[in-house]
Amino acid sequence: MKRLLFLVLPLTIWNLSCSTGEKKDPALEEAAKYHNEATEIQAVVEPQIERIDSLKTLLTQRTEPAAKATVASLDSLKKAFEDWEGNLVEVPGMPHKHSHDHGDHEHHHHADATLKDLPADQMRDLQREILTNIKEIQKQTEATLKRASTLL
Q1: How do residues 59-77 score in pLDDT, each as one tens digit?
Q2: Sign of CA dihedral 115, 97, 132, 27
Q3: Comparing C-alpha atoms, which of 91, 95, 81, 92 is closest to residue 43?
Q4: Separation CA 36–CA 82 (nearest Å)
Q5: What pLDDT was estimated at residue 58?
Q6: I need a labelling partner for 55 at 20 to 30 A (CA). Which of 4, 24, 98, 147 fits?
Q7: What is the pLDDT of residues 10-23, one digit of tens each?
Q8: pTM of the model
Q9: Are 90 and 96 in contact (CB under 8 A)?
Q10: How far apart are CA 70 and CA 87, in angstroms?
């Protein structure tokens, strides 16, 4: 019995010290919140971006200057979204969720870069900027798609 106590007691103390010793950095937690919100918006915008090529095909058949301008806007939005996806980085050590159910078509995953050595406050600021950028892409995409639908 004494032998069992000598084995269990040190393991219990070690386990408690490990579980209470690591606190998550609030700036990284905030960064993860921004990242998760950005990827949720990405999941909404991506299907809209995927419609661009078919819309462009229809719009190029139109002769109005507004149709040509809308095609240029659609091209610009598609490029901006692809660039945004290419620059998306993970928050190191933080759980995140990605829900991508896109069927049988190609899906562009973001870079695996994590920038592990970036200070927490800079990671938070980076993720905030990434979120701001996808919100702007979302806003412009919705406006351009609305404009495109009025031309068709």
Answers
A1: 999 999 999 999 999 999 9
A2: negative
A3: 81
A4: 18
A5: 95
A6: 98
A7: 444 444 444 444 67
A8: 0.75
A9: yes
A10: 26
Residue written as token pair 């990405």: 42
Q: Which amino acid is at 71?
A: V
> What is the residue type of 78?
K
pLDDT tens digit sequence for 83-114: 999 999 999 887 655 544 444 444 444 444 55
Residue for token pair 């393991």: 11
Here the tokens at position 88 are: 């998306």
3-state per-residue secondary structure call for the chain: CHHHHHHHHHHHHHHHHHHHHCCCCHHHHHHHHHHHHHHHHHHHHHHHHHCHHHHHHHHHCCCCHHHHHHHHHHHHHHHHHHHHHHHCCCCCCCCCCCCCCCCCCCCCCCCCCCCCCCCHHHHHHHHHHHHHHHHHHHHHHHHHHHHHHHHC
